[in-house]
Specification:
This protein is α+β, with helices and mostly antiparallel strands. The chain has one domain (5-109). It contains 3 helices and 7 strands. The chain has a 5-stranded antiparallel sheet. Strands 1-2 form a two-stranded antiparallel ribbon.
Length: 111
């Protein structure tokens, strides 16, 4: 069984604007992933100046393929693992339901 570690937002963000969730349960490799930290910092600070809305789906998939984490609806870091698009919640990565909203470019932010 793979153990999970709690990544507390307060450990790497001073005075976050978004305080929930207070932590994320992650594998050791994800716990130390600087690209994930950058996405979570943008979400919890509501600071998206380095992000933009993609014009095409290729921008989203290029980030996913390179191991980076686009942001969905300004609330979720998105990853691509084992052929599945996943979003991060407090208790870990969850499979992302593909709904009509997932195909609306305005719901995405890319770096």
């Amino acid at each position: 069984m793979k153990t999970k570690e709690r990544l507390y937002i307060s450990d790497f963000i001073e005075d976050p604007i978004i305080t929930y969730p207070a932590y994320y349960s992650l594998s050791k490799s994800m716990h130390n992933n600087e690209m994930l930290h950058a996405s979570l910092e943008a979400i919890h600070k509501v600071e998206f100046t380095h992000y933009h809305q993609p014009k095409e789906y290729e921008e989203i998939f290029a980030l996913l393929d390179s191991g980076q984490f686009p942001i969905y609806k300004e609330h979720y870091a998105i990853g691509y693992f084992g052929g599945r698009v996943m979003y991060l919640e407090s208790y870990g990565w969850k499979s992302m339901p593909i709904t009509k909203d997932a195909f609306t470019m305005e719901n995405w932010l890319v770096f």
